[in-house]
Write a structure and sequence with these properties.
Belongs to the galactose-3-O-sulfotransferase family. This protein is mainly alpha-helical and 415 residues long. It has helices spanning 7-36, 80-93, 138-142, 158-169, 184-190, 192-195, 209-213, 225-237, 247-258, 262-265, 283-292, 294-314, 316-337, 376-386, 389-395, 401-414, and strands spanning 70-73, 98-99, 129-130, 150-155, 240-243. The longest helix has 30 residues, at 7-36.
């Protein structure tokens, strides 16, 4: 007797195949266009229109001019989504011009960045802020911004980052699928060369991801002279490198460097995982992760040292006072904005617009519920502080049809 096919499954497979074909064709043709048109386009006109930056805080004495031309190199799994929210709010409040992606929420990562990937780009256009995920390509980015633009990025301890990226992206990296046992992370780090193929699909997620994001080769061994050369390049190109492991101190240094106010630095932690989804790592396993990600570890050590040198120059006591003030202000906003005073799992979020993007096969990313009794003067701010990245970009007018198509396929076919 012939087995009856499941019509729902057949329907899903047909739709899934169609989605993959459409996305593959679009990405191929778009990427070809980016490469062939990247040389002849004119640079940014280098003239910055006057921008009035709103100053709502009389308690802070402003003795410098706030910087509005910014390039934030958004690295993966470093708390960068929270930083993105800060920048989007600042840009909106001050009516700044964003260089936004088109059709998806990144600039065709993992391909190198080209100006033609910017939504509605025309040769000679100048922007104030570039802040979405990309694989950094300095010459192309520089041509979008005035010459006085401040470049900054954020790094994280490679051991912590590897644990996060390994779990978040494992469904996108086929070479992880064959790792045996329940603790795939430990197995991989114990025998990385047994499982790692640098030519494999999305292999960059498995080694020196921060190096890769910054535009360098991620397969370099730590003793390769190109590692030191790359670190020196980052030190020259970026005016400030933040450290995710010391987030509040990073924001205070950024506030000082950009001449912003404490109001501009308020944040809620976005795109964070449930605690039960985070694997505990022994000191030995962390050491293996740092050794395997040797280029990232060397990069992190260098800029962690420069970070604390900046803290010393800022003043330890002054830093402690400012961090306490940031904590206090964030706690005030939490009481005003968040129902239940904390993050919740996706299924408990009542407003669909506030639900964060989830990795394939599991809903581990937390989000928030807005209070129903938010005072009117805080209503807009609360909503923007809690809006996930995908929804915020949509609110800014980005047509994320590829991201949303992939999201449908991920949630309805793969899951």
């Amino acid at each position: 007797m012939r087995k009856r096919t499941n019509p729902r499954l057949t329907h899903k497979l047909i739709l899934g195949t169609l989605v993959i074909c459409i996305m593959g064709f679009y990405c191929f043709t778009a990427q070809t266009h980016h490469v062939t048109n990247s040389v002849s386009m004119a640079s940014c006109a280098q003239v910055t229109p006057h921008v009035h930056v709103w100053n709502n805080s009389s308690a802070e004495k402003v003795t410098c001019k706030p910087k509005v031309n910014l390039m934030f190199m958004k690295t993966h799994k470093t708390g960068s989504s929270t930083m993105l929210n800060i920048l989007l709010r600042f840009g909106e409040k001050n009516q700044l011009k964003f260089a936004l992606p088109h059709s998806r929420n990144d600039f065709f990562y993992p391909s190198s960045f080209f100006r033609s990937q910017v939504k509605n780009y025309r040769p000679g256009l100048c922007y104030n802020i570039v802040c979405n995920h990309m694989r950094f390509n300095a010459p192309e980015v520089e041509k979008l911004l005035p010459g006085d633009a401040a470049f900054f990025t954020i790094l994280r301890d490679p051991a912590e980052l590897f644990e996060s990226s390994f779990h978040y992206y494992k469904a996108y990296v086929p070479q992880t699928w064959r790792i045996p046992g329940k603790n795939k992370l430990s197995e991989f780090l114990t025998y990385p060369n047994r499982y790692f193929n640098p030519e494999g699909m999305n292999s960059f997620y498995l080694r020196n991801l921060q190096f890769f994001d910054l535009g360098f080769e991620n397969h370099l061994e730590v003793g390769d002279p190109r590692v030191n050369e790359s670190i020196e390049y980052v030190a020259k190109r970026f005016q400030l490198v933040l450290i995710s492991d010391h987030y509040e101190e990073s924001l205070i240094l950024l506030k000082d460097a950009l001449c912003w106010q404490m109001d501009d630095m308020l944040f809620f932690k976005l795109n964070a995982r449930r605690a039960v989804a985070v694997s505990s790592m022994s000191p030995e396993l962390k050491a293996k992760a740092r050794e395997w990600n040797g280029a990232d570890w060397k990069l992190y050590q260098h800029f962690n040292a420069t970070f604390w040198a900046r803290v010393e120059a800022y003043g330890r006591r002054r830093m402690e006072e400012d961090v306490r003030e940031l904590h206090r202000r964030n706690a005030e906003m939490e009481a005003i904005c968040i129902d239940g005073r904390g993050a919740v799992v996706a299924e408990d979020i009542t407003d669909g617009h506030m639900k964060p993007w989830q990795p394939i096969g599991e809903a581990t990313i937390l989000g928030y519920n807005l209070r129903a009794d938010i005072p009117q003067q805080f209503s807009e701010l609360c909503r923007k502080m809690l809006t996930p990245e995908i929804q915020y970009l949509t609110d800014l007018g980005v047509n994320l049809w590829i991201t949303r198509l992939w999201g449908w396929f991920k949630d309805n076919v793969l899951s």
